[in-house]
Amino acid sequence: MAEKTYVIDLSVDGRNRYRHRHVFERDRIVDFSIQFEAFIADRWHPIVRYDSAHGFGHRDLMHSDGTTTKTSFQYWDYAEVLIYGERDLKQNWRAYRENYLKELEQYEARTRSKQ
Fold this sequence. Notes:
It contains one helix and six strands, in the order ββββββα. With about 120 residues, the chain is α+β, with helices and mostly antiparallel strands. The protein has one domain. Strands 1-2-3-4-5-6 form a six-stranded antiparallel sheet, covered by helices on one side. A hairpin with a 6-residue loop joins strand 4 and strand 5. The longest helix has about 35 residues. The chain is globular, with a radius of gyration of 16 Å.
């Protein structure tokens, strides 16, 4: 088995990155995790992750309140999910970041109003 890992900056300011890890055996992906992360308020926030945890390919969309929305790709092989997810993250990271920031503002406003 061999493992490949790397991180790619998606923006020139270094505040948005794509983290990639996959393990392959011969010519087959046997495990993977790819993730879009944004640097917001002095820390890295994982926002979208595609991975093979739980024995099937899926996407986790993280929300600012700590909840996660899971989308299953259980009928796809890992290579298909990896390719799809990589394309999705590289093409749509700006929209994912914008939606996360909107959710974060709403979450913080609700938290302040409860105090």
